[in-house]
Amino acid sequence: MIDAIIIGAGPAGTACARKLAENGFSVKVFDKRAEIGSPKRCGEGLSEASQQFVGKIPDRCIAQKMKGARLYAPDGRYLDVILTEGGFVLERKVFDKWLAEESVKAGASVQANTFVSGLLKNDLGYYAGVKGEFMGNEFEEKARVVVCATGAESPLRNQALGVFSKVNLVDSCIQYEMTNVDVVSDMIHIYLSSVLAPRGYVWVFPKGEHRANVGLGIIPQDKKPGEYMQMFLKEHPEISKGSILEVNAGCVPVGGMVKDMVTNGFVLCGEAANHVNPIHGGGIKEAVMSGLMAADVIGECLKKNDVSKKALSKYNDVWWEERGNHLKRVEKLRETLEKLSDQDLNDLVDALKPEDIIEFARGAKLSVLAKVLMRKPRLIAAAKHLL
Amino acid sequence: MTWKIDNNLCLRCGGCVSVCPTAALELRDNVLYDAKLCTLCGVCEKACPVDAIKVTKL
Asked: What is the mean pLDDT of residues A277-288?
């Protein structure tokens, strides 16, 4: 019997696999997709600083380097936030395969096109393996612990832990990868608008050579993201003149991080635990961080031969202490911003200084941001909500 | 009382699966539907980014 089965070869699963394998444990990763990393369901942005967790990203995974972000108010005015450390727009199809290769180099085994249809339990009632299917052949594989890193889209997390994403806490998203788009190419572009993207925002992430991911996320409703996208494109001929190379969709959990991510022999990590930054919906860094944290605790538990819920729950403590409580504050900020009208958003972009955003991104307290909002009378109510 | 998906519109994103409270949906080549688990609550229809799902409660 192997030590760990990981379901899902995205950033969370392969980070967890890499760390477990580095620590000498036997690990298999199964991914249901025929090609790891494809189809992408992602804007593909990542900060350079994330390499602290992800590792040094090879050039072939990077479509374009970014200096910072350009934040547009509904009235078209914008604020440039230049980061000392920049960021990347990735090629997820290459990046995810690279991460998988790194886990294999560390000693893990990875298998694509492998659908996990169910979970196995042992005599103690602990989760202890999976049922699956590869190339038309059904199989069973036992392991001492099962890690669910499936993203939000698998019913396995619901079957094992009753976890799902509440509909009002997801952003319903559509994205076109386009070519022949004319935008400043070394900045990501964020368009705020309560009319064009209620609750969410529109993003344009350049990928070099006039290519870009053009996407939009909104609170789920009858009117679908595609309709809003048409409205946005109509106002932006420099983008709509381009051609569409790929269409992606998805629902991103921008809240509702799972409190209790473990049960006997079973651990959730990454987006399967709704680990996504609630303000921008980015999940790669969170996925890798939770995968690594889970691997540390699982490793300790395997050494002590105790994968009970009680032993594994140290991962809950570590994650909430190191990440969850910060993301909870970010979620509160999103709740505040989603109430703002277009007029308020104009005032907000006007009131913000680039250093405010950088400071907040580094983990500043909400009170710091509240002081920024206090600069505009219209935003005082929102500021009070943050305090 | 019906749950229907238009597989021509569906982009296989799995958004419906992520919000389903009863694990009645699963994404393989298409979205698989388990009528025994479904409560016709309609959150999948609401979350779907492309209007591929229709839930009728009558």
From this structure: 94
Contact predicate A265/A313, CB 8 Å: no
Residue B9 contacts A, CB cutoff 8 Å: no
Closest chain A residue to B14 measured between Cα atoms? A153
> ipTM of this predicted complex?
0.95
Chain B interface mutation, best of A40, A153, A171, highest count of B Cβ atoms under 10 Å: A153
Q: Is B25 on the interface with A (CB under 8 A)?
A: yes
CB contact under 8 A, A167 and B23: no
Residue A158 has phi, psi (to 5 degrees) of -75, -45
The secondary structure element, H or E, covering residue B25 is: strand B25-27
Backbone φ, ψ for residue A188 (5° rounding)? -85, 145
A57 Cβ under 8 Å from any chain B Cβ: no
Separate counts of helices (H) and strands (E) for chain A: 14, 16
Residues 95-134 of A with CB under 8 A from B: 115
Summarize pLDDT for A161-211 with one digit per residue, the tens: 999 999 999 999 999 999 999 999 999 999 999 999 998 999 999 999 999
Q: Nearest by CB to B47, from A115, A167, A226: name it.
A: A167
Q: B48 Cβ partners below 8 Å, 6+ apart?
A: A172, A224, B15, B16
The pLDDT of residue A363 is: 66
Query: Is B48 an 8 Å CB contact of chain A?
Result: yes
pLDDT of A365 higher than 80: no
Q: At residue A357, what are phi and psi to the nearest 5 degrees?
A: -70, -45
Categorize the per-residue pLDDT at A387 as very low, low, confident or very high, splitting at 50, 70 and 90: confident
* Mean pLDDT within A87-96: 97
Return per-residue pLDDT of chain B as tens, 58 residues.
Answer: 799 999 999 999 999 999 999 999 999 999 999 999 999 999 999 999 999 999 997 7
> Nearest-CA neighbor of A199 among A223, A177, A183, A175?
A223
Question: Chain B residues with CB inside 8 Å of A153's CB?
Answer: 13-15, 17-18, 27
CA distance A354 to chain B (A): 33
CA A126 from centroid of its chain's CA atoms: 29
CA-closest candidate to residue A92, choices A10, A178, A152 = A10
